[in-house]
Amino acid sequence: MKQQAYAAGSVTESIVAFAQFTRSHGLNVGIQETQEALMSAECGLLIHREQFRGALKAIFCHSPEECQLFEKLFLLYWDTNPIDLQEVKSRTSVQGMIAKKTNTSLVMLGRGRTDKETEEGKNISGASETERLKKTDFSSLGSLEAGVLEEIARKLFQQMAVRLRRRMKESRRGGQVNLRRTIRRSIGYGGEPVDLLRKAQRPKKTRLIVLLDVSGSMDKYSYFLLLFICALRENFRQLESFIFSTSLLRISKALRPGSIQRVLSVISDQAENWSGGTRIGTCLQTFNEKYGRQILNGSPTILILSDGLDTGPPALLAEELKKMHRRSKRIVWLNPLKGTRGYAPTAGGMQAAMPELDEFRSAHNLNCLLDLENILAYA
Amino acid sequence: MRSFDNPSQIIEALDRQQYIAEEEFATALYLLLKLHKPLLLEGPPGVGKTEIAPVLSALLDTELIRLQCYEGLDVNAAVYEWNYQKQLLGIKLQEGSGLSVLEKEKHIFGHEYLLERPLLRSIMAENRSPVLLIDELDRSDEEFEAFLLELLSAFQISIPEIGTVKAKHRPFVILTSNRTRELSDALKRRCLYHWIDYPDLEKEMRIVKKHLPDIEEKLLKQVVNSVQQFRKRKLVKTPGVSETIDWAESLLALGYRELNAGAFDQTLGCILKSAEDISQVRTENADVFM
Question: A208-377 in CATH: which number?
Answer without folding.
Answer: 3.40.50.410
